[in-house]
Each structure stands twice: as C-alpha cells, then as structure tokens.
Request: fold
Amino acid sequence: MATTRLLISCPDAKGIIAAVAGFIVEHGGNILYADQHTDSLSGAFFMRVEIEGDGFGLTEATFADAWQRVADRFGMTWRVYWGTRLKRMAILVGKEGHCLTDLLWRWSTGELTAEIPFVIGNHDVLAADVSRYGIEFHHEPVAADNRDEQEDRIRRLLRAGEIDLVVLARYMQVLSPGFVADYPAQIINIHHSFLPAFAGARPYHQAHERGVKLIGATSHYVTHELDQGPIIAQQTSAIGHRDTVEDLIRKGRDLERVVLATAVRLHLQDRILVSGNKTVVFE
Amino acid sequence: MATTRLLISCPDAKGIIAAVAGFIVEHGGNILYADQHTDSLSGAFFMRVEIEGDGFGLTEATFADAWQRVADRFGMTWRVYWGTRLKRMAILVGKEGHCLTDLLWRWSTGELTAEIPFVIGNHDVLAADVSRYGIEFHHEPVAADNRDEQEDRIRRLLRAGEIDLVVLARYMQVLSPGFVADYPAQIINIHHSFLPAFAGARPYHQAHERGVKLIGATSHYVTHELDQGPIIAQQTSAIGHRDTVEDLIRKGRDLERVVLATAVRLHLQDRILVSGNKTVVFE
Amino acid sequence: MATTRLLISCPDAKGIIAAVAGFIVEHGGNILYADQHTDSLSGAFFMRVEIEGDGFGLTEATFADAWQRVADRFGMTWRVYWGTRLKRMAILVGKEGHCLTDLLWRWSTGELTAEIPFVIGNHDVLAADVSRYGIEFHHEPVAADNRDEQEDRIRRLLRAGEIDLVVLARYMQVLSPGFVADYPAQIINIHHSFLPAFAGARPYHQAHERGVKLIGATSHYVTHELDQGPIIAQQTSAIGHRDTVEDLIRKGRDLERVVLATAVRLHLQDRILVSGNKTVVFE
Amino acid sequence: MATTRLLISCPDAKGIIAAVAGFIVEHGGNILYADQHTDSLSGAFFMRVEIEGDGFGLTEATFADAWQRVADRFGMTWRVYWGTRLKRMAILVGKEGHCLTDLLWRWSTGELTAEIPFVIGNHDVLAADVSRYGIEFHHEPVAADNRDEQEDRIRRLLRAGEIDLVVLARYMQVLSPGFVADYPAQIINIHHSFLPAFAGARPYHQAHERGVKLIGATSHYVTHELDQGPIIAQQTSAIGHRDTVEDLIRKGRDLERVVLATAVRLHLQDRILVSGNKTVVFE
Reply:
C-alpha cells in the first residue's frame, strides 16, 4: 500500500509543524508518521512525514505548485517520494559475497523494497549468486590501466538503468570524485570497522594488531574523502585474545551484513536526512 | 529551563497533529519535540508534545479552558505537565542498596530531575546511604502480623508528602490492590529477570536452575497482578556455565540499576503513555 | 588440518588434569586447547582437550586401550573425535527458509565443517535453495493421518545417511519421544523466543501481546519435553512500541539465524557437554 | 577462601600443561581453574592456574625453589600470588566522581577485593565521597608550575603505601614516563571512547562532531604513549542524532564505570597477562 513521504530541512522557526500538518489535512491527507529534529547547534530543523496514499488530494503532478507556498515561507529544502515508483538500486561487488547475498535474500523476502536491475562485479565469482535471483550481472573488472574507462562504463550502466541508489557491498575499489559528486547521499558503503577507527585498508588486520576487544562495522554515504562520509549505522561485537584475524573476518561478516542491510533499508524508506557530515535517521 | 509537556491519547483520526500544532502556534508556543504513535490494532492514537516555556501564551490557569475545544473534538484523554513544579518521588527499599544508591547518585548529578522528600525502608540498613544526601529515611518494617497497619502508615506518608511517583528499588514486599489502585501508572518496580520469564521469587536461582545463557532485568508499572504490569524497559546480559548464582546476582546488579534508572528517567520526563497492558515510550 | 578432540566428564578429584595432560604428552601429543569446568553444586568435572594431529602416537584403533587406564582411575565418561571423519548433519525444515539458507551459506564458506547429505522438508518450497548447493532435498510432508509413517521414513533416511546431528531449522513439527531418544544431545532446535519465556506456539505473537521491550532466540538440544531441553545459545534484540508482529518476525529472523548457526558450529567443533539439563560450552 | 594463582608465559612447547599440572598434584594441590592460550603468530604460550589453598604443600617461602626446575625447563616468565595478602590499590581522581564512587561501592560490596589505603585527588571535590568509606583522601593539586614536585609527592605516597595497582578514575593528568616505567602493567586508565578512535582530549566532543552512531569506553594499562597501552576491556552503546554532547557524556558515564570496574576486577583476580601491546584475559 503506497505511502507518500515528504522530507524537509530548513532553519528552525515557530509554526513549521502546524503549517506542514495543516497543509496535509487541508488536502485530505492522513499523517501516518511525523518525525522531526532540531539541531540545537546549527538551528537546522529536519522533518519526515509519511502520508497515507488513500484520500490524499495531491499527486506527483500537482503537489509542487500547492506546496511551494509553505516551502517558501520557511525557506525549506524538500523532497517528496510517491510510493508509486520503486527506487532503483544497483549493487557493486568484489569477491566477497556475504553482503551481496544477504541483501538479495532480504530483497527476495520483501524486507527491502526496490528494483534491482543489475549487479556489477569487479570479479565474476558472484555471477551465479546474482543470476539465480533473475538479476543481471555485469562483469566489469577494474585494473590499474583501465580504471577510467571502466568507471565510465559503470557510470553509463547506472545512467542507463536510471539508478537512484548505488550500494558498495564490499566493492573494494575507490570511486573517482566525479562519480561520487553525481550521486550525493546516494552511494552507501560498508566499512568493516567502527569508524573512525581503522579507516583504510585491512581493518581487521589493524584491529588484531592493536588488540581491541571489539570489532565493528560502519555503513555510510560515500563522499570524496575515503571512509569519511556521513555515518548511517554502526554496530560492534565482542572479541577476545583467542580470536585470530581469520576469526575477526568471520565474526565481522555477521556485523557487516546486518549494518549494511540496515542502512539500505533506512535509505529505501526515505528515513535518512543528511545534515553536514552527519545523518538524521528517523527510525 | 522549564518546558511544558502535553500527553494525549484518543481514537485515531485525520487532522489531530494539525489541530494540536495549530493550537500551540496560535498561542505563541514553540514545539521542541512532537512524537506520535498509532496502534494499528486498536486504532488508538498517542502523542507527546514538548513546548518551549518561553513565549507560550497559556498557563496552568488558562490552558484547560482554551484546550478543551480541541480535546472534545477528538475525544482526547490528556494530561499537561508544567515544568514549574518538579515531580515528587518516594523510594521504597529492602536490604539491597544497589538500585537505591544508583538512583540517588543520578539524582545528585541532575540526571534525574525530581524532589525526593523521603525514602522508606523495610529494613534500616540503608538509612545512612539516604541521609548523606540530606533525604529523610523512614524505617517501616513490615511483618506478617502488621502488614495492614504498616501499609496504612506508608500510604499516609505518601499522601502527606504529595508523592507522584513511587519507586520500588528492590522493596521485596507485595503491595495491596488498594494501594496499587491509588497510584495507577505511578508505581515503578524493578524485577530481576527478563519478564515474563522467571516471575515471582528468586529469579536468579530460577535462571541458574534452568541453565539460560543470559540474564535480564525488567522495569514495569505495578498493577494488581504480580510482575504482570506494563513493561517500560528491559535489558539482558550474557552469562555462561562458569557463573554461579552469586555471579548472576553480581552481574544482575549492573543490569537492574540501569534498567530501573532508565524507567524512572522516562517517567519523570513524561515520556511514557500506558496503552492497555503495554507502554508507548517516546524516547 | 585435523585435530583430535577428547571430551571428559567425571566426579571432580585431584590430579585429573595432570593425568590427562601427562597421558597425552606420554604419547607424543601436543595440546592445542584444554578447557575444564567443575560444577561446584554437583561436584561434576568436565574437560575438553584438543590435540594436534601431527605427532600424536595414538589412533582411532589404539586409543581406547591405552586410555582406559586413565578413564577407569577417575570414573570418566568420555568421547573422542578424530578429525579424520567429518560429522554428518541433516537439516529438517518447514516453509521458512532464513535459517536453512544461512546454515547452507556458512557451510559453503567453510564456517561450518560437516557433510550434509540431505535436507528434509515438510514442504517443498525450499527445494531449490537446497539443490543449488548440490545437496539432496527430500520432501516428506507430515499430516495428521500419516504422522507415524512419515516419521518412520525420516528416521530411515537418517539411519541410512549415518547422520550424527539433526538440525531443526524452523521445522515446526514435534518429534516423537522415540525419535528424540535415539539422538540424545544430537538434535538442535531453534526457538524464536528467549526461553523459558514464550515457549510453545507463535512466540512473536505472545511477545507482542505481552508488550516486552526485547525479543530473543534460543538454540537448544531437543528432549522429550517441548522447548525444555538444555540451552546452548541465546540472544536478544531491542524492540519498541512501533514494532508490529511483522516487525518482530523480521527482526527475529536475524537473531534466529545467528543463534542457530552458533549452536551448530559449537556442536560440530565438539565444544558442548551436557550436564543434567544444562550445557557446558567451551568456546 | 584463599587461592594461589600462578601466571606463566614462555615459548610454546609440548608438555607444558602436563609439567605444570604434574608439579601441582605432586605437591598435593588441587587445580580449580587452568586456562592457557598460545599466540599462533608469536608462538608464545600463556597460562593461568588457580590452586585451592587447602592441601597445597608449598608456601610463599618454599615455592620458588621447588618450581624453578619446571620454570627453567620451559624458559618461563612467571609470577605467583598467594591469596594471603590482598593487593593494595590507590585511586587517582579529578573532578568527575562517577568512576570513583562506582569502584568504592563495588569494593564495599565485596565485588572488588583489595586494600584501598587512600585516594589521591587533583581537586578536593570528591573528598567526602571517599572519607565516608573510611578511606584517606589526599588532595594533591597539579598545576603547570608544580607538575614535577606534585608527581614526586604522589610517587612517594604510592611507595609509602606499598601500592600494587594505580587506578586512574578519570584523573585527566598525564603521568611522566618515569612514573609509568615504575608501574609496568600496574596502572589502569579509563578512556571515554572506543580506542583507537578519539584518543586524546574531549572524546565525546570528537564523537559528536564526527556523527558516530555509538559511543564507547576503553580500559587499558598505561604506557609511555598516551592512550596506546594494552587494552583490557571495551564496550559501546548506541546513540542517535537527538543526542547532544551532554547526552553522550551522561550515557558514557554508564559505560565508563562498568568498563573500568571490569578491568580492575580482572586485574585484582590476576586474570590478565600482557603480551606485547595486547592483553590475554582469562575470564
């Protein structure tokens, strides 16, 4: 059952909630959820409203005109998602399949609601895991001497597929600044540490070397700075002196797949707003 | 800085949020937080609004008259808390001091905002822990042959102290139905298990006997049925085969004090609404 | 690289560790891990020793004769597992595939080391998920009027397959006492609650009805009493008032698959000893 | 009831456990716990044995002579603790009392077994919290111009008090390399972040600035490099976008006191061995 989701950010002011809720009721809408947050440091206001599809008198064609008066009054940045069209998600993978297969499994059960037109692999070892779900698999190997061309090919695929969300499910390749700039807050990565600890390569090796007593995983939006983007979800898990690097890798897989799936679900449900380099997550 | 908190429950309907927010803005109020929840099974709607003290044009004296029109329109049950008066909390204890001293420590740091006119002890071993905070301690031992008189004395103390919230910090005595009925959703108990498992006496012994791999603690409102009231907060902690009953008791203390303090803080901040035998907790 | 695992239980006494370790070194063995536990209530002693394959002078054929002298001295019950033969595991499933596919995925990555000759399904909806791993799928539907015959067929399959471990991955059928008696501490079930809370049918519905603030999952050995067997692993996860029964089911899947996989891994690595109705788990 | 604890590290070799256990039984000792660990990278072997006091034929006076033969054979570094003498612990504090009062409370309940001859405060605000337990409080304020003299005074106090363990319970002062060198693996600090993230000053401010979704606390032995010593225990706790820096500080207090108390308990029970810059913790 389709719902309409309205996401707003603007400077805090008296009367925003009343104005938004009043507008919706005026057009026959029923609010299912309304969450808001004021960042007391910056004075920024964030709001997410989910409106029942039935009975709402505005449509994709008529909403903007009617709404603009409210938006202008408070200086709002806003987006609206009509449940009538599913988001289109592409997954980029390397050799490790645990995050990919977990996402596809959740998608197949209805836990993740999106269209997945294709998966792009830097290697082809996961092709069968993808095609069994009836999803196309593109093998686009990146090497030192073809990096730019391959990225161009990938970007063409994403554009042709009208992709809204790119998920890096242990892709292990750094995207160029131009690529990242084309998809602001639309590329989600999973990093296998509790960032900002152990950014960069081989975080489980770093964790083992340092002798920490917990490992973690972090899902975040990708920005031009490696492992520095806005964090969406994090979890940790206890480890001990008996655990080898291989044990950390094994235990970490369970963290990674849950933390990535959480971020993807929150994004697909339009529950994340970006505020500077942080996220506001309306769960 | 005082804020005004409005708690509402009513049958779900279109336009409630708009009406509430419109009313507040109409009277010059600024909404700091607004949370709502609809129970899809019962169709009940719950809302909590926190309004900035500054600028709000209504007072304890004038609010009800102005508000009644909105309340009547939607058939609301409602309460409003003016930050100008602190809640008055009494703590009842037995011999075990860990929950009591934790509550008093949090209170002394400002984490719990309330007046604590007195603590009532079934034993007197904790008197010094109380009086060092400048709080009165009443020793009211309950025995088989004075149960009714002692409960009467305690109820008189609570009435005389104009107590709003009674916290059973490991009190270990069952209150009579009449006592409980006088304080609906105003008596918070800590039970040292993850209810509904191990209700009743000696839950750590029961847990050890059953061989569970985690222990828990549950804070809940007291109702006439023992350990059956609406649950406010729960946590669990891992244990293993090496843990004796004494280890469970020791590890459990850390759970109990956190879980009880959480419930008390949520209650003092008017974040809990009771819905049948469940709670809606606006964190 | 194969290791030999020796599991011992006996009345506690002085000198057991010295005798066991002395015996192993006498036969050229290198101890990789040695864990022991004394139950202070019952006075029972439990020990698990893992011996490096290389250099150990005893074999499956010669061990028992040599060892009997030590075993007799302390009245030991003991078992020894030679890494030369993998355990043989059968999985029984119903309609819900999340535990099954998780087990098979872990098995395919080498996280679970066993032979899986076949999976038995009460329904056939999961046949393709099984056969893609090259594992046989037997569809053996159980109905009210064929319960005994079907159980006989299943038991014949298990015997023919020389099965050591039966995993009930949301099988949803109760096994007869005779079946259970044939596989003592060799049948692992996953129950979707934190037992002993919400035993029996529809635990997520029970949990939602009661208004708990956490849900859980429990893996345990099956005994003749439903949901009463020795608990191997348990975990819980926080929920809130917004969560519907469907949300609990979704969140619970993540718990169930981790908790079941943990129990299966511990069993396959011979890390579990049963002590009365409890487990000693040497992690 | 006093137990004797023997801690061993040496290069891994066949027969160590047999030799140690054989030696103990030969002298009439009963092993209560025996834990060992081999670091597969370095080939180092670690062992902790806890021996029942009753019946053990060796004493503080006679142990070393008898034991030396075993120790020499395997090139062991070893320490033995006789339960007859409690460890002597000093606590150093700043202005924040939550870790201090938690440690003293646990000590008063018997959860921490040690002598605490005194507490040293850089400020005097916590003097009353200490003296109510009958413990001496020394006010030794450190300023830019008296740093060396004050540290000398503190070191004299520790020597005079025959202190074995120094606990920095939010002391907020950096100790000189000479001080640290005098107490190798005998100074425990609590750092209010999940190290190595947010080392240095104001970790909660750093965490808020970065927008992480969890906060942490780390207890570790102090070495000459700030916040770089071997980690003993770590925990994290979930936070969200609504949490201000003040909320992080409040929530962090609950983590800090548990994580510090855990490390102190493990140390007092001789459960920690240092291996390079890591710890082996036999829980």
Remarks:
- The CA atoms of residues 12 and 40 of chain C lie 9 Å apart.
